[in-house]
Amino acid sequence: MTGNDEPFDLYYDNEDETERPRITTFIQSLANYANTIPSPNTDQEGECATAPVKSAEMGTLIGVYLPCIQNIFGVILFIRLTWVVGTAGVLCGFFIVLTCCCVTMLTAISMSAIATNGVVPAGGSYFMISRAIGPEFGGAVGMLFYTGTTLAGAMYIVGAVEIILVYMAPKLTLFGDINDDFVKFNNFRIYGTCLLAIMGLIVYAGVKFVNKFATIALACVIFSIIAVYVGIFKNVHGSDALQICVLGRRLLRIDSTSDCTKNISGPLYQEFCPNNTCSSYWTENNLTLERDNTYSQIMVDITTSFTILIGIFFPSVTGIMAGSNRSGDLKDAQKSIPVGTICAILTTSTVYLSAVILFASTVDNLLLRDKFGSSIGGRLVVANIAWPNQWVILIGSFLSTLGAGLQSLTGAPRLLQAIAKDQIIPFIAPFSVSSGRGEPVRALLVTLVICECGILLGNVDILAPLLSMFFLMCYGFVNLACAVQTLLRTPNWRPRFKYYHWVLSFLGLSLCIAVMFMTSWYLALLAMGMAGVIYKYIEYRGAEKEWGDGIRGLALSAARFSLLRLEEGPPHTKNWRPQILLLLKFTPDLELEHRKYVSFVSQLKAGKGLVICASVLAGDYNAIGEQAIAAKQVLQGVMVKEKVKGFATILVAKHIAEGRSNLVQTAGLGGLKPNTIILSWPYGWRDDADEEQAFEHTVRTLTAAKMALLIPRGIDFFPDNTQKISGYIDIWWIVHDGGLLMLIPFLLKQHRAWKNCKLRIFTVAQFSDNSIQMKKDLKTFLYHLRIDAEVDIVEMSDKDISAYAYERTLVMEQRTQMIRQLRLNKKETFGMFL
């Protein structure tokens, strides 16, 4: 309807009817749209076009909950949790477990918010994290996550070997008594290497074999935990399998429960009383055979500390991202990932926290602190608790540990391949290649090498804190990404998961950092240093990926805040520096005239401050818009070659002078605006009247704008960035230049091209002036400015110098009087030149 309520006819144009999609097709494409960057596997259009699409049918239970359960419950639960409880005590042990569980729960909340902010791509947690925090941080976190996953495989392998050699078949030891630490760790290294080779072959055979074994491992984990709880409640009043022989309050390391007496014929008498000479501790203390410890006093082992224990236990709560790694196979990833992950953490946290209380209530503290079960015949403490016998736990924990190790060796190479395919870290690009069967063979080989390095450490207690650092760094960045996105309130941040808050994310980040430094401050610094090196490497090589991440949004918000701060008032004279607008000219063939102007700006700025390289093309933008775009690309290419960090802009105007005037008035933003213009000299002004008029008009415009003007003449004789020249930089100084003539040579000498040059300052005097005093005052003035320069006074007669030139020439007595009139102190006076 029109304004006068009269109907009008709609014009139907069927020109593009065959090109426009049907409305139903368009809506269907919107429904299937994923607002995240696809995984590298989908970058190749040809592969995507031919590859059959597999329907995602996995639900929350099978796709997220059970995989997280399998990955969280690991070797630490079976071989170290009882020792952690006995060493730390029930209160500190409970606090250690609670702290670690809080880290994973807060991280899961942040991860759920990120995962539900759009369609989750098939690619796992790395893609989710990297697309949220940018290529630099994403690459660093990805490499840390890869290293942690690889070292986790090493820890699982060493733990599996420990279960075999210490508890299942100690006679398989190669070098002697397995209770000797040197012999034990060397056996772990040899058997671990052999087991790694076998597992590597299984992974190489294909992921389908690993997935088949994963079902068995998951069943072993669940059944083993059930057996432990049944055994605890069945033997709540004590068990013969947990009998220990105690002399005073010292746990005897030998298996003496069969005859725990002081009889002369007994084994203990022979041990403590050789040659019928008994030690004083034997005679002063009684032997007791203890079976339970429901109300025992919890002691703390002086040989370890709280920080060591938290570092050893933390790997037992990792694995929370197992569900997000299967995002491409989930029917509804935005629903399954939050629900499945959080429920898995609640389940495992309940098991761990209840286990701490139950172990402390039913097992003597001295036995809990017996790490390798020497006092009960070298048996695993948690296995002796289980029902119906210890072999249920030994076999179950061994198979579940192998399953977790296979999952790590399967996931780590694919993670490395995914990072390599993103092309953000050039030196790992060769690992993006897959075999004919689609297996990342190259990535698998380097993963096995790194895993072998971890196995050579030969000790779970050393590996656990090390991989804790990498997982904590990864979890910390997840919380940081969620907090940044929440605080920035970007329009595309609309998670379906509503139970998050930036306070929780920052609390999770703080806990990650705190646990890192509590575990080991030097390992924490090592992990942060590794992340920093990778970040700077990606930044140095130029991260060309644009993923719409939160870190770039943070940079935009910081830039806006800084510009608003600069807008509050003019800069102080001490903070003044030339913010340059370079006005260049193009040939009709869109070639840049006198490229050394760009080199000169690079030498003058040395990467500091604002640089805008601009040019004006005469004509109508509708007619030459494409030429303007091409000219901008040429200008940007020259700036890159000359290493000028700045901005390029091309303006199309009917007249060159008008365009330059518009640039002078509008270039910059807020307080970050040019104050110095570098204008090319009109070499053809004698033959081109328009060029002469444009030059004069530009100079008048700059005078009206009160901007500094630099007109380098003979620019082709200036050095480029690769040259090193020597000689003199001559300055003819005048009074009212504001110090700019002194500042220009100082800035030039900071560049290597001008570094070997010396500075000479000339000033003009008449024969009637006191030249000696002028030279002395000028040297004093330069001394206070911290500028090394030679001073020359040039005396001229009245006929050789115009009245205007003399009036504008530096006379130190007049300048001193002027400074006094302005009532500037010495510090402010010298500051306005620098």
How would you explain this protein's 3D organization?
The protein has 834 residues and is an alpha/beta fold. The chain folds into five domains: 58-244 and 293-519, Amino acid/polyamine transporter I, CATH 1.20.1740; 245-290, no CATH class; 520-568, no CATH class; 573-717, HUPs (Rossmann fold, 3-Layer(aba) Sandwich); 728-830, no CATH class. α5 (81-115) crosses α12 (306-313) and α7 (135-168) crosses α8 (181-205). The model is unreliable at 1-18, 30-54, 287-300 and 819-834 (pLDDT under 50). The chain crosses the membrane at residues 62-83, 90-115, 144-167, 188-207, 213-233, 298-317, 337-360, 466-488, 500-524. It holds the Pfam family AA_permease. Keywords: Membrane, Transmembrane, Transmembrane helix. It is a multi-pass membrane protein.
